[in-house]
Model the fold of this input.
Amino acid sequence: MSGAGGNATQQLRLARHHHRNQRQSHYSHTSFTSTDNQNVRCSPFATYLPTNTPNRVVFALLIINKAGGLVYNRTFAPGLQKLDGNDYLILAGTFHGIHAISRQINPAPAAQHLPGYRRPPTTGLESLESSHFRLTCFQTPTGVKFLLFTSPEQPNTEVVVRRCYEIYGDYVMKNPFYSMEMPIRVEKFDRALGGYLVRP
Amino acid sequence: MSVYAFFIFDRHTECIYTKRWAPVPPPQQPPTTNGYARGATDASILARKALKAEDDAKLIFGTVFSLRRMVRQLGGEDDQFLSYRTAEYKLHYFETPTQLKFLMLTDTRVGNMRTALHQIWATLYVEYVVKSPLSPAEHPKGVGVANELFDGGLESFIASLFAPQ
Done:
């Protein structure tokens, strides 16, 4: 198991840099067909998620590419209204726009800094609360947005959404047959996400 | 904890009240010798600022309107949009049954402000605007909302909420 853990650590580290220009080198020593990471719940990174909390519900995960198109859409638990595919596409486009606007209407004053200080880039909408669900949005440096719909009681949603990003890095970005900006149809990604987010 | 702005929108999507708690502006530049040119630039800066405030209100309304629709679509008809947060600010939202929308922009450390917005509606807006014999039933361009009592009441209420500990 220690070998699998080491491999997973390496994959994680590499996944964080997947947007850099190193993807070619990944293929030489990362085997996405190996059985090491097939069951993600065995991975050492899943240990911070308690498995026996009843109100921990993840409703759905949406992935929006940098152009505002919906590339992945999956429901894990009932709780949200059923929408058809077209409505999800419209929702993704709308959210993409709102995210950009919410960055522009920032009313917070710019703090005084020493010359040479580089301000961190302003982020758009990160978390939305309604009376039935909570939406956590995580935008990667490359502009891909991960939208996680959970119950309002769900703690640590930022951690969960980042772990989804890691799974995306492992199984989608390292898949040589995946074409960028296109809908994600990767079976191992589906299985890994299911293993992580679906509660028995 | 600090508050940045407060808005009321009526059911015709119009902004009928705005209040901003502006941060302290940076020190003015020293006066130039050409008084005429300086006056002109001041006027244009003021005009641009007013335009920006108006645009901001429209952008905020558009954002909230879309989010509200999105929340209804996903959570069902009885779901209500409560707030959203970015890394820099947080927007709190409260809608009355008459579709009057109360919005507040604060920093991110502020907790749930829904009860505070409800209180502004129930104890300030209803008392000083709705019950005012001088104010019309609708408020096109904010007529009758920004009266002295409402303004002062809101000011002191917000000051008591965000009082320095």
Q: What stands out?
A: The helical segments of chain B are 35-75, 114-130, 148-161. The longest strand of chain B covers residues 3-9. Chain B has a mean pLDDT of 85. Residues 3-22+53-161 of chain B form a domain with the Beta-Lactamase fold (CATH 3.30.450.70).
